[in-house]
Amino acid sequence: MIRASIRASSRVSSRLLACKNCYVPVSQRITSALVSGSAVNNNIRFYSDKPQPKLTVENYPNIKRLESFKKLGKEDLDYFKTILSQQEILEANENEDLAFYNEDWMRKYRGQSKLVLRPKTTEQVSKILKYCNEQNLAVVPQGGNTGLVGGSVPVFDEIVLSLTQLNKIREFDEVSGILKCDAGVILEAADMFLAERGYIFPMDLGAKGSCHVGGIVATNAGGLRLLRYGSLHGTVLGLEVVLPNGEIVNSMNALRKDNTGYDLKQLFIGSEGTIGVVTGVSILCPIRPNAFNVSFLGVESYEAVQKVFVQAKKELGEILSAFEFMDLKSQNLTKIHLADMDHPLADDHPFYILIETSGSKKEHDDAKLEAFLESAMEDGLVVDGVVAQDETELKNLWQWREMIPESSQAGGGVYKYDVSLPLKDLYSLVDAANARLEEHGLLSIDDESKPVISAVGYGHVGDGNLHLNVAVRRYTKEVEKCLEPFVYEFVSSKNGSISAEHGLGFQKKNYIGYSKSEQEIKMIKQLKNLYDSNTILNPYKYV
Amino acid sequence: MIRASIRASSRVSSRLLACKNCYVPVSQRITSALVSGSAVNNNIRFYSDKPQPKLTVENYPNIKRLESFKKLGKEDLDYFKTILSQQEILEANENEDLAFYNEDWMRKYRGQSKLVLRPKTTEQVSKILKYCNEQNLAVVPQGGNTGLVGGSVPVFDEIVLSLTQLNKIREFDEVSGILKCDAGVILEAADMFLAERGYIFPMDLGAKGSCHVGGIVATNAGGLRLLRYGSLHGTVLGLEVVLPNGEIVNSMNALRKDNTGYDLKQLFIGSEGTIGVVTGVSILCPIRPNAFNVSFLGVESYEAVQKVFVQAKKELGEILSAFEFMDLKSQNLTKIHLADMDHPLADDHPFYILIETSGSKKEHDDAKLEAFLESAMEDGLVVDGVVAQDETELKNLWQWREMIPESSQAGGGVYKYDVSLPLKDLYSLVDAANARLEEHGLLSIDDESKPVISAVGYGHVGDGNLHLNVAVRRYTKEVEKCLEPFVYEFVSSKNGSISAEHGLGFQKKNYIGYSKSEQEIKMIKQLKNLYDSNTILNPYKYV
Description:
2 copies of one chain form a homodimer. Chain A is α+β, with helices and mostly antiparallel strands. Among the domains of chain A are: about 170-285, Uridine Diphospho-n-acetylenolpyruvylglucosamine Reductase, domain 3 (2-Layer Sandwich), CATH 3.30.465; about 290-395, Alpha-Beta Plaits (2-Layer Sandwich), CATH 3.30.70; about 410-505, Alpha-Beta Plaits. The first copy, chain A, has helices at about 55-60, 75-85, 100, 120-135, 185-195, 215-220, 225-230, 230-235, 265-270, 300-315, 330-335, 360-380, 390-400, 405-410, 430-440, 475-485, 485-495, 520-530; strands spanning about 90, 115, 140, 160, 170-175, 180, 235-240, 250, 275-285, 290-300, 320-325, 350-360, 380-385, 415-420, 450-460, 465-470. Chain A has a 7-stranded antiparallel sheet with strand order 13-10-12-11-15-16-14, sandwiched between helices. In chain A, strands 5-6-9-7-8 form a 5-stranded antiparallel sheet. Chain A has a 4-stranded mixed sheet with strand order 1-2-4-3, covered by helices on one side. The longest helix of chain A is centred in the last third of the chain and has 17 residues, at about 360-380. The first copy, chain A, is globular, with a radius of gyration of 23 Å. Chains A, B: Its cofactor is FAD. Chains A, B: Keywords: FAD, Flavoprotein, Metal-binding, Mitochondrion, Oxidoreductase, Transit peptide, Zinc. Chains A, B: Its main location: mitochondrion. Chains A, B: It catalyses: (R)-2-hydroxyglutarate + pyruvate = (R)-lactate + 2-oxoglutarate; (R)-lactate + 2 Fe(III)-[cytochrome c] = 2 Fe(II)-[cytochrome c] + pyruvate + 2 H(+); (R)-malate + A = oxaloacetate + AH2.
């Protein structure tokens, strides 16, 4: 019988601020206050254990500040003081280096902005942008600053336009489930607000305690509920956006259907703050499921993973809410890291699967899951498995998926790739990367002289989203050159995407050509030029 | 006990080619052959019972042909003959008036095109458009020509670019459920192809036997499965589009996630052929449910309709696939029309609800539905109801919803409005329209001297989509002036949309201002100008 209990472990006690696909370890982090009055106190924010990064311009000396941008002057500050209160303006001075706003979450990038503006209204955002556009002052829109590609921090001296204080829930319709809120509402706050009313925000990710609703829309974040509720392109019903010239585009309607004209809002979903600043979001929220199940399974091949996925879609149908896979290498690293915990399955298997269901009736979900697992085992597709019996076990099972990123970098460091690939090719990248690293004599699980420990693969099968983590003992140019552009070329050859959900930002700006055709890049540039001809919005990034 | 059987009726025997929200009665219609070799024979197509319409230019004498467009010459035909075979070119001559391509489905509009091009490849489409753009020849892209707003037929002498012969399924991934096909594949053919593989097309509508996959994408059709599977903006993963200048934009990837650059394909979803011609579609298809239930309920108020909707979302959760409401007036008209059938409920009720569930396990769905209905009746929300016991009963229950459009026009004619409104305001338009018609002395259910019989309301509560049908004995200017722009102004005052799913086309081009702000219209025109500066694509329409 596959039903077995999982031991709870005290080992995994620290709070995880993790995107389930991209774990971001943070020793201490102050979650800003929820919904209202959530002014982040930049004196008490703590970062990851990493040391303060070098300035981005030091790491990337080839990138030059655009000469066309004006340098901030006293007259500019004087203007901003006419439209914003003192509390809405933060200037760099001897006591204040604005590090909170200049550095990204991972401490990989550091800008040199001297000014942070924190408007409380859309009209203020409009006035700020209109002025900056006229004066050629570069601006970086910033939400919760939890991005992973350096998209939300300045590169040089761009003004930071923080949406933190634009943070009110505007309206919720309990019949339709349509939520309207300011861009700066924290995702967790929105979800808690909805939970009290029996609804759920249609996406979730580990940084929910810090990231903003506007930020996830601007970056088209993927996260955990995509398999179930689809992408933000489907769930976002309307946006309020301020264009670089200060014009406000208001499509904050509460309609599921509106077939009058091009769907303009779609352009801003995933535009990463390069053509407009999202200030308001209208989104359709589903009823909160009240039953959750998690099962952890062992299978013998990647082909079996795919077969189990098809079977799960058929038998679990409408209640399937996550289908994650992990290879043995990823679990071996995690076993070292979670040394005090027993792995859910006693024996090794080439691949593991985590299945989550969520539905409206527990006994029905249990019956479906049990029937599915029995048939999958009878068919020989699944060779071993467990089902969580309570909330604690459910969380513990998720640990073996969630702790892979931290485990991957525990040996010294990690090269991370977040890619989309057609499902049949999803795992081939991991095999190819391992083969290549071996071929170059860089890989050994126990020979300390080799830089690479292991290249492991895991991800959201349901979304075709693979995470390739190359665990290393140390960062070396040799490893980097072995992996890049190899990984991007491989993904491109399979018509995949070099960024499944993290976006382009600063990090991947130059690699867009691996995912998009020349024609598409031309059109992307046309749109950038159409809306932001002075390129004041989030320069040096995206495209 | 609410479970009761519904008598099957022989009265409703004719095949319904109906969009469930907008029924289009057609006495005979030849569905073109499926998937391949589906060249529509324009000599055997039959239309609605209505007489051939006047030319659009006769009905709308104020609209003038754009002088900038070249008139078709022999040299143009000569060119087309170099890139297309004889079978791919249809010229008007004494035996061929091209009526199939010049007239819309409803026989409301009639153009005067002398040339229809029916390419078989994307490259041919590209060459055609490049040439037309260079020569300033106006073009109307045409799919199955089942639109309801005159968007797919010429107004003057535009060349018709029919996608009928671009009709191959390109690829299907049985693991991910991603279908790639040509634009000209008929929706029903795509769905049948998917059904054989256990999948379902994520949208459905009555015209499925004729409409094209490319056409539903280009018009962002809504249809029946929106409540369950969401809009095409979420399910379409990639498009192949030919721009007016002949450039091919290929984003036909098979990825659920791709965060590299603006999501260009979204612009073409719902663009109604005004900025590009969709030639290929990549779409995510869900597993086909194998259990369906339909229930028909009587409630006492519109407030109760809303409460039952919330309750249904909570208790039926993931299996709820349709939630339709109808007012008593609509059922009274339908009773006259379906005189040989007994209404599902013996007594009159101010409002009726049709609920459909679809899921992966019949017994679970039955149990959920039964529990929901019992609690809704105990709470006094639902006062009477029936559940279909078999496929025939299920179809019969749907009749009382589907036959409303035909019943509405059976007395002489009907003014139809397809609008989106915030849910709480959804029905208020029907009350307002009735009050206004009464006030103007135009309305009487039995006084034959009054032009209006009844203004009835029904629609997709789940989508906030109301259909207001004003049943009339005869069309009069007085009624039209009483209703327009009144209806549009009312919808606009509630921040609704004047076109929920039918689009703008020719019919609503001039009314976009009721749903979109000046700022949005400006941006829509900017995009039109960006991609089609010569305005050769689908002129006189949309914006």
